[in-house]
Amino acid sequence: MNSKEKNYILSKYLIAAYAQLGVKYAFVSPGSRNTPLMLALSDQSEINVYNIIDERSSGYMALGIAKAHDKPALLITTSGTAVSNLFPSIVEAYMSSVPMIILTADRPKNLVGTGANQTINQYNIFNNYVKNFIDFSNIKKFTQEIIFNIAIDSYNHSMEENSGPIHINIPFNIPLYVDNRNKIKFKENKLSKLKSIQDAHNKFKIPNFTKYLRPIIICTDDKEKDIISIANQFNIPVLMECLGSRFLKKYDNIISSYEFILNHCKLDPDLIIRFGKKPISNTLNNFLDKNRDITYLITEKLFNDDAKNIIECQTSIFLEQFIKRKFKYNISWLNSLIIKQKKIKRYINNFFKTPRDHEGYIINKILSFFPLNSNLMIGNSSPIRDLDNFTFNSSSKINVFSNRGASGIDGIISTSMGLALKQKKHNFLILGDISFFYDVSALLSNMEISINLNIIILNNNGGHIFDRLEGLSSEKDYSKYWLTPVNLNIKDIAKTFHCKYLKLNYKTLAKADSSIFSNKGINLIEIKINSDQHHLENKAIDSGIKKQLI
Fold first, then answer.
1. This prediction's pTM
2. What are the CA-CA distances from residue 93 to residues 64, 69, 83, 126 (Å)?
3. For residue range 61-79, what is the model confidence (pLDDT) as tens digits?
């Protein structure tokens, strides 16, 4: 067997194995060194292949589709800086526990450090941000069984417990292209019985929670629907983040305005049960820090968290055990928080009856147009905080996604495009202007791939997230060094990338309806916001709520 046939056969077996494992999507970027992998993908039909010119965007699209389907996609690049361009999306996948399988083509090991073209040291390049690394240079003999086992192990490892990315580095010798591939003989073996993914750590003991009087549950991105209903049975209030089940079904015990309550009231629980990662809200994080001793984190396996009391098990298993306890907490504790929540909701709803140049008003108005069961990707910085602070529990069944692993503003458009691929649901992205411009090159894919997505750009001309840092906005060089206005015309960008375009402000939005959205292609909706007015409205809301709660 010559070198080019070996390259192709290795790639063919690897891709065939992932197809049998159920991988449905591959995101690739053009190159020469990854030609054997590309040929193997081209010669099969089980995996949908998307050719993305920019590896940075490709990585985030793979992240997005994995979020949507809870299964890894393949992410394939050529050698050199193409590999390093994947780093931000891999960091986000690792930090947010999203499965991903990265196949990087490489030059042979003997060329590293010799000045050979497009050759860098790719060995374990992602290091701390992948769950496992496999380098094919270390494998002396390739058989179908060995390659199949590598595929099975990498797939299972990416999915088990805290899901995450797996990196496989594959050096290919030249020649890379092989023709007459139909003449190459392959074993058509199926995968042997798959190794089962190990059960999560379910050996645990629930403390005696019956001795407490004032319990609360804090739920961030854990979407287990039974958390709310079981808490309701036990008269436990749930401080529910916008990334959890806030929009699944109406429950009186869901407290969504916890930041206002914590800022203006004394909340004195004697037990806190946590589900999910650390909160978006700094106020809520500070509250948890002050109550470490009485807080219990429920998690399959501890990851990137400093909780003092940890119960390692699946949420569903914990709830099964918890519900066996035959007790209820005093409803007066729950009712005291429900009353506060209703006062806040009533005040904000009344305040927003008048159109406001305020991101909370705009986000609420936009969400009111969403069809049931829509997908929403929410951008970092201000948008996710305003979604969290100014929306309430509903039965709209909006599925909210975000990149909160490392919380960067990069790759937000690309992630939302990955989420929207092959979706029958309505797909939306709400993000700020800086996040939009940062990842605008992702829209190149709109010219090649059919994606239905409405992108709502909250344009306050420079971001203004740092306005929230006390005292910083009065700094003499604040506008120069912290604000980043990009004076580009979004309408022209829409035209360049073959997107639809609509421009609104808070007044025209007040008269709009769901017809502003498009069900086909990418639709850019720019909404201009005056940041100074937004902050004035914020102060008025906070002051009004404080009076309601005192």
1. 0.94
2. 9, 14, 15, 12
3. 999 999 999 999 999 999 9
